[in-house]
Amino acid sequence: MPSGWDRVMTMAEAVYLLCAATSAGCAFMLWRQFRQIKRYRGTLLLWSSICFSGLAVSNAILFIDLVVVPATDLSLIRAGVGATSVTLLVMALIWALE
After folding, report:
1. Which of 4, 16, 17, 54 could serve as a FRET partner for 78 with CA atoms 20 to 30 Å apart?
2. Helices (H) and strands (E) in the chain, counts
């Protein structure tokens, strides 16, 4: 009979995967819309798509870090991917304002 702790870990694993899938879904929808528009405003869609792709990769690394190989610490890689993704989006927002 599984204990309450096992159930919490299973729910946490599901949340990690759902976050990665949601970010990947957002990236796909933004990319699809970018392909249809391809105007000046479309570049912001491209950078948003790249950002969400990076966030999906970051969430996948989180799942790998905490579930698949918990003995290794991938937090620095995960944080680097997430920070790079958000930095790219912020730079694209600043560029779009100019």
Report:
1. 4
2. 3, 0
